[in-house]
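Note to self: the last two entries modelled the partners one at a time, which told us nothing about the interface. This time every component goes in together.
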Amino acid sequence: MTAVLDSLQQGRQTVQPALRAAIDRLDPTSRSIAYYHLGWTDLDGNPTSGGGKAVRPALALLSAEAAGAAPETGLPGAVAVELVHNFSLLHDDLMDGDTERRHRPTVWAVRGAASAILTGDAMLSLAQEVLLEVDGPAAVAAARLMSEAVNELIRGQVLDVAFEKRHDVSLDECLDMAAGKTGALLSASTAIGAVLAGAPAATVSALAGFGADLGLAFQLVDDVLGIWGEPSTTGKPVYSDLRARKKSLPVTYSITHGGAIGRELSAWLAAPDQPDEASLRHAADLVDQAGGRRWALDEAHRRMTAGQHKLEEAEIGDHAREELLSLARFIVTREA
Amino acid sequence: MTAVLDSLQQGRQTVQPALRAAIDRLDPTSRSIAYYHLGWTDLDGNPTSGGGKAVRPALALLSAEAAGAAPETGLPGAVAVELVHNFSLLHDDLMDGDTERRHRPTVWAVRGAASAILTGDAMLSLAQEVLLEVDGPAAVAAARLMSEAVNELIRGQVLDVAFEKRHDVSLDECLDMAAGKTGALLSASTAIGAVLAGAPAATVSALAGFGADLGLAFQLVDDVLGIWGEPSTTGKPVYSDLRARKKSLPVTYSITHGGAIGRELSAWLAAPDQPDEASLRHAADLVDQAGGRRWALDEAHRRMTAGQHKLEEAEIGDHAREELLSLARFIVTREA
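The predicted structure of the combined assembly is written out below.
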């Protein structure tokens, strides 16, 4: 899988200067907060090595290649998806009360709510601006694709927030939420390069469908890691999603399809007391015994297969197809 | 001034259905929060009469007329500026901790921070979408104009938040903040109709300049009302800006240009205790005695005159010019 790491590294090297140039247009305060959030500097503004894997930008470049264009054709799209992704992280961390991301304090936790809100707003607006500066008719098409993805992203987050107060969330509702919250932006990432390359609608649609499947698969695995993941890998405390009583996909499956064990899990989630480590381990076991873990991993596999079929039927080059599939597998399994 | 009220009423009648159609595309939760925020329904979703004056949409329609087009040409712009305006209100009320707007509880105060953040995000994204759906090359031009206005709006709010923690804000910095926070969107409102009508750059630029001047004049008067305004008119408690120790334009003028009285005012603002009514009245008197009130009203007049000159030199129809000026005077004086 070193080829994937190479491709990610290459993506970062292509995208980083353009992303930096975009961020540098922000006012000095938002810029320095964005630098910190992106892992480019510490709180005092000193450069740090780090930052995310930038999988969405890499997908956007491959998306352009898939449409027979140079990866650079997808560059404004790569910058835009990374900006939108980080807009949503800034706002979500605040709304979810998460104090850590990538092993560092979140922006709202160290700089206050206003900083997280405004830097997020600025990054969202900047994403559209970068796309609107593209020459030719692809600018509007790409900006519209992004607008729709942002709408879906917000819709997903709205559902996520609403589900926290509900005890009757169905599996379909939960899948719909994940399609919005995670699927929409990954779908835009795998399609936007092709849109910028002026690809036919059928190609764009196949790539978008692949990205949506990839997004669901990623979320299913992410939810499994949110319960059983190693803190050193996830950057979150163990049982983190259970601690937050999150109705994630495996939890919702277990509640709605797990019979008596599901009911016990549901009662555990509704209990008002702060659970200790043993209680969390017990809840995790309930999710497992009710079939939620197995289902989530199987469903992730099914989504990946469905996405792969869409790519195989699309009229795209073999090399780009292979790269997209390798990157997708890496994103889902997080192993290289 | 009944002509102005007619023109506003007409603007609302033209814009309201399109704005509603746009809002209706949001997910049900965001939609119902937007309805409440816009004054269309109460908290339970029952229809109410009310809502803002919608001056920005009226300016956008007149902007199209100024460029010789039908007002309807400016309609997507009118919807977009109203959406962006309300995006910023939703986020600002949360960041500023304001619990009341238009005599009703603010969204964050009744529905929580996440609702205000997400509904704001959704309205911002929707504004771009509405513009991107316009046929022809004006779509990109209008969407770019709006993107730049949003960037400026956010920059202004970033400065506003930063100024709260500073005691050395210069008058120029304060004017620059107001130009971003208030001027940018009014400037976009007076220009976007002309952009959608495909007007020459010189006309767009004159209209944008007029709107920027109008924005500054409005903010100067708004800041005076923030101290001395009648609660029944402003919908805010008396001395509201002093209570919040806001370094508004008249306050900043008095501090930086008011000699000994200014220093006394500065010390008052820095004091840690919660001021009572008598203390607030005393502070308001200090702003007055140091010349801040007079300067703000004079400066508002100068800005209006400068804006009027820009309109007079622009190649636009007499009727639209008169209507723009009347509406501008109404916005600034709030009398009809």
